[in-house]
Amino acid sequence: MDLSIEIAAMRLLEGAMELRPEDRSAWLHAQAVPTEVFERARALLASGNATAGFLQRPASRDALRAAAEVPASGDRLGPWLLVRVLDAGGMGSVFLARRDDGAYDQQAAVKFIRTEHLLLDAQRRREMIARFENERRLLARIDHPNVARILDGGSTPGGMPYLVMEYIDGVSLIDHCERRRLDVAARIALFCKVCDGVQAAHRHLIVHRDLKPQNILVGGDGEPRLLDFGIARVLDPDPSSAFTLSGMFAMTPAYASPEQVRLVPLTTASDVYSLGIVLYELLTGARPYSLRGLSPAQSEQVVCNTVPQTLRRALSTGDLPEPERRARLTRIDSDLERIAAKALRKEPERRYGSAEAFADDLRRHLDGRPVLAHPDSLGYRAGKFVQRHRIGTAAASIALAAIVGAGTVAFIQAQQAQRAASDTALINTFLVDVLKVSNPYLTGSEITLSEALDDAAAKVDERFGNRPDLAIDIRNALGESMFARYRLDAAEAQLLRARDDGERVFGPDDPRTVLAIATLASVRKDQDRIDEAQTLFDEALRRLERSGQTALPLYATVLNDLGVMYLIQEDFAKAEGYLQRAVDSDRGSTEPAALDERARTLANLAQAARGRGDLDRADALYRQAQPVLEALYPEGGPHLAVILNNRARLAWVRGNKDGAITLQTEAVAMHRRSFKGDHVMVLVPMTNLARQALDTGKLDLAAEWSEKAAAMADRLYPDKSHHYQVNALAALVATRLAQGRMADAASLLQRTRTLLASLENAPVSTRDYVDTLVARVCGDPATQPPACAPAP
Questions:
Q1: Selected residue with higher pLDDT from 127 and 187
Q2: How many domains does the chain have?
Q3: Mean pLDDT of 692-713
Q4: Which of 36, 56, 76 corresponds to the end of one domain?
Q5: How would you classify residue 764: left for phi > 0, otherwise alpha for psi between -120 and 50, otherwise beta?
Q6: How many CB atoms lie within 10 A of CB 548?
């Protein structure tokens, strides 16, 4: 199949389906297109199959119900019960759903996405479904009050992908403004929040591709929320390609950017253009141009070549009640027109560098300050100052001084804002290049996003060598990513640079500098360099406290991480002290990130209580933390798996050994889903499961997991030992003893003791367990193997 022919044919078909059935054939024959494109379009038009039917908008609900894959009201998907249809169209349907498993009450919107229109063969369809799962997890990371969150997702038994999204009981952005009769300033303020949501997703390198008022709902609280963020991306069989069928249809031409209708690769600038159209319609009541009745080729010409009327001219000729028209005209000035025009530039590089820069200029307009879209001049700045300070400029001499002074300040502010916009564009370009590295059509080989990030780390100096102020944030982000993937040496290199550059550029107490220090402390902890970690943690706390920044979330994070270090060392009293301070410093935010941090801190505090023997308090804290993390991560994740692991240990202490093994097995499975390769977060629960299985006589289970744990530990620590490796080997020694394989047990024990002797800070429980094994192997002096010799 020639994909370019398919794309051209489908575009023709889309235009034909806008016409009455009796007019379609004649219209198709009148189009000047290559013969192969015409023949393919004619075949699709004549077939009347599901692919052609997809383009009929809107599809009837009966047709959707008739499709075998589409569930119906009353069906269940995991914990979700489908209540009723909210919307239906060619791309699929949306149901209102509610949580029906008794865990907690929650409503959601379930979007089913049809795949037959993608014209994929079976293998490509399977690949697309697999990509859908990966992209859904990426989209779920978008955490912003103005973006509807993705809660869950998967595929139906028939293979239809679906997303479970936060349900917004609201109306579209335009309808909300009209019903509330909002003035121009209120509309702009609301629109700026939309831009904030778009910017939050752009930071995750996700382009919406279909921004329009219908995808922006305003709830009863007056807050706008963006829907379907990244849906086009999850539909895209190959997001690195410019030519994708889903990319063509997962857009609304009236709100599409020139590069989008031309099917060229998209950047965040495409969403900026769509935002410009939304703002234009919000202020004038009409879109910049009409595409009604036009063919795809004609629509492309209009979108790419038509310069929109100014806002005031559009208002003068628009269909609005006269009082409303006059009211808006009095509030729309040349600054606002220039802002809208800049967002709607045909050339992406001439638009605002980001949605954030777009919103910043609008907020400057609302504040009466100079805007970046206006040509720079002293007179312009002076005029803006006078408008903001009418009383203060009554006396000419004072006015002159004030204007000059304000002009200077405004000039500096304008320069700073312009540089900020330029900086954002620079970082966006760098991040886009990071993604391009994973495109095999550009590089000749396919690599993972993790490998792309590692490659990016080597290029930070090259791209930002003369901008350490920008490089610091990038290095901090790379360092945290590498630390999370247990690439400790690589993380250390990035964080050391971030710390040193942060102290030089921003100062020792700047949060960016302190973040580098705190993350480096966590790296030292996992490198088993406990004394250095303690020093770094203490330094991070000292800097935050002396600069009065204890209200920052970073302060609670450092306290929590320091508490975790003492948990690992089994100093539960010290751990509890730091963790309780972290809980006490919590400011009660209801943001998802704050809820996540709070739940994890409570779970760590529960572990400290368990270690001190306060089992009832530990159980209460776990039960307080677990539902929060289950709501935030419906499919599970590392933080939730840690709670399962720790609850397994609590159940074991309380004598519920079967329950402990069940919880531990769930924890291992959840960790292995989160970390595809070797990782300490997988190693620890595997070791725990092996020991629990052994203690309950489940020898086969113990052998399976102790062998896996020991092998993973050797791969994780090839050069320098760690007490996690000692624990894993000790579990295998115990298993070999239970199997009666004394020679193997003795050989493994000798190696275990050698590794333990090389450690300076091994926990007491690790040493005690190895001592127990030594006593079992070396109990008979007459048959002591070499493993019983004094440890080196």
A1: 187
A2: 2
A3: 92
A4: 56
A5: alpha
A6: 9
Residue 467 confidence (pLDDT) = 78
Coil/strand/helix, residue 487: coil
Separation between Cα atoms, residue 322 and residue 202, nearest integer Å: 39
Q: In degrees rounded to 5, what are phi and psi of residue 509?
A: -100, 5
Alpha helices in 120-267 (DSSP H): 122-139, 173-179, 184-202, 231-235, 245-249, 258-261
CB 199 within 8 A of CB 287: no
Domain assignment present for 167: no
The amino acid at residue 594 is A
DSSP string for 609-668: HHHTT-HHHHHHHHHHHHHHHHHH-TT--HHHHHHHHHHHHHHHHTT-HHHHHHHHHHHH
Mean pLDDT of the chain: 78
Structure confidence by residue, pLDDT tens digits, 574-598: 999 999 998 888 766 667 777 888 8
What gap in Å lies between CA 505 and CA 413, rounded to an integer? 20
Termini Cα distance of the chain: 68
> Buried (b) or exposed (e) across 201-225, using 16+ Cβ within 10 A?
bbbebbbbbbbbbbbbbbeeeeebb
- Cβ partners under 8 Å of residue 379, min gap 6: none
Residue of 583, 588, 508 whose CA lies nearest to 549: 508
Domain around 13: 3-56
**Residue 269 phi, psi dihedral angles, 5° rounding:** -60, -25
The Cα 377–Cα 400 span in angstroms is 16
More confident residue, 435 or 680: 680
Domain assignment of residue 705, yes or no = yes
Sign of the dihedral defined by the CA atoms of residues 385, 386, 387, 393, in that order: positive
Residues 6+ apart with CB under 8 A from 557: 518, 582, 597
pLDDT for the residue 288: 92
The CA distances from residue 47 to 41, 42, 52, 53, 57, in Å, are: 10, 9, 7, 9, 17
- The answer to whether residue 436 scores a pLDDT higher than 70 is no
Q: Which is more confidently placed, 164 or 633?
A: 164
Q: For residue 654, how many C-alpha atoms fall within 13 Å in the half-sphere facing its CB?
A: 17
- Please report which helix (H) or strand (E) contains residue 386, including its range: helix 378-388
Q: Is residue 145 pLDDT above 60, yes or no? A: yes
Q: Tell whether the model's pLDDT for residue 56 goes beyond 50.
A: no
> DSSP state, 152?
E
Q: Which of 328-337, 432-441, 521-530 has the lowest mean pLDDT?
A: 432-441
Q: Give the integer Cα–Cα distance in Å for 650 and 138.
A: 33
If 0-12 CB within 10 Å is exposed, 13-18 middle and 19+ buried, where does residue 688 land? buried
Is 65 buried (19+), middle (13-18) or exposed (0-12) by CB count in 10 A?
Answer: middle
pLDDT-based confidence at residue 791 (cuts at 50, 70, 90): low
Residue 418 confidence (pLDDT) above 90: no
Q: What angle do CA 195, 196, 202 make, to 5 degrees?
A: 85
What is the model's pTM? 0.44
The whole-number average pLDDT for the span 523-548 is 90
Domain boundary among 16, 41, 56: 56
- Sheet of 224-226, strands arranged across: 170-172, 216-219, 224-226
pLDDT of residue 115: 55
- Higher pLDDT, residue 780 or 632: 632
246 domain-assigned: no
Residues 6+ apart with CB under 8 A from 260: 209, 247, 251, 266, 270
Instruction: Tell whether the model's pLDDT for residue 381 goes beyond 50.
Output: no
Report the C-alpha gap between 94 and 84 in whole angstroms: 9
Asked if the structure places residue 172 within a domain, the reply is no
How far is the C-alpha of 232 from the C-alpha of 220, rounded, in Å? Answer: 28
Q: Taking residues 599-606, report their average pLDDT.
A: 90
